[in-house]
Amino acid sequence: MEGGGERDHEAEPEYHCHDFEWEDLRADVEANPSFSHHLSPFPTTAASPSPSSEAWRSFHRRHASGRFFKERRYLLKEFPDLLNNNDVAKMLEVGCGNGSTVVPILRCSRNNIVYACDCSKDTLEKANEIVNNTEGLDGKDRFHPFLLDVSKETFPDWLFCKSCQMSNAKAVDLLLDSSEHNTRKEHPVLLKENQCCVGGIDAVTMIFTLSAIPFNLMSITIQRCVSVLKPGGLVLFRDYGLYDMTMLRFSPSQRVGFREYMRADGTFSYFFTLDTMRELFHAAGLLELELEYCCVRSINRKNGKSMQRVWVHGKFQKPTR
Ligand SMILES: C[S@@+](CC[C@H](N)C(=O)[O-])C[C@H]1O[C@@H](n2cnc3c(N)ncnc32)[C@H](O)[C@@H]1O
């Protein structure tokens, strides 16, 4: 693992834990002069950073082996809504990478259909390969990856059409329509606007993706995700929290904004407070159902040092009317 903003895909904890109080960590960090460069306001005159999608594309090209795939089994404990056993549920995983979040969602219920976007074609191909080759998953027909830079582009019309958005509760489940079943299942991305569509999404997952998008583009990104949700639909969110160990390792020169950093490879990392989350999601019209810090103490196996990890866990809902 590299220092100063390590890429910690492997360092995920088992699931939701509260090993320490976030307020105690905050007091320690804010009293420690060696962390003062993380706290100072960022000059507003500084040019806002450019989108890091190209950096992510290079990252995935360099790591084509799929080494960053690790099934996030803890997700189902964190978000039991994913364990849906009754009705067909359409999920959208935003910034799916190699499918670490997609696989447990497909695995936990045969009723789950997963649409998944990423800005990198290479990682989508890898995710597809992993889904197709994972034994016992049977996810081939229920996984629909597509290329999209969510910080720049709107979601495609086939995911939701305007008439379905308006009569949302009654949106016809076209993928299950018997006469069209086969063709649509095989070619869901070829659905035509207003002729047929997926009919909206039941739950959007954003798992370590929003932090990868420049802060000035987060609002619009969230609005886009909300636009494809059915009324009553959920956003399930997990990402880096303020004063996570990886933030404190960044050097002053890696700061590109307030609580925002650029790794050596050009990818971004933002660290959220609950208040920032609240503001962003409320502004997009969502209701807060769950929002908290997940604070985990883990021990570095190499040097025996204790590491304080902080993640933000959130669950938000689109109002039903
Ligand atoms: C830290 S990975 C998380 C992957 C996955 N959600 C998971 O649970 O492991 C962040 C992902 O977001 C993708 N990403 C970054 N910026 C994006 C953008 N603007 N549009 C779409 N995907 C983006 C990256 O390519 C990367 O695969």
From TrEMBL:
Can you name this protein? tRNA N(3)-methylcytidine methyltransferase
The entry's function note states:
S-adenosyl-L-methionine-dependent methyltransferase.
Q: Which PANTHER family match?
A: METHYLTRANSFERASE-RELATED, TRNA N(3)-METHYLCYTIDINE METHYLTRANSFERASE
An example molecular function term from Gene Ontology annotations: RNA methyltransferase activity
Superkingdom in the source lineage: Eukaryota
Q: Which Pfam families match?
A: Methyltransf_23
The organism of origin for this protein = Brachypodium distachyon (Purple false brome)
Its family? Belongs to the methyltransferase superfamily. METL family.
Q: Which UniProt keywords apply?
A: Methyltransferase, Transferase
Q: What is its EC number?
A: 2.1.1.-
BP-aspect Gene Ontology terms: methylation
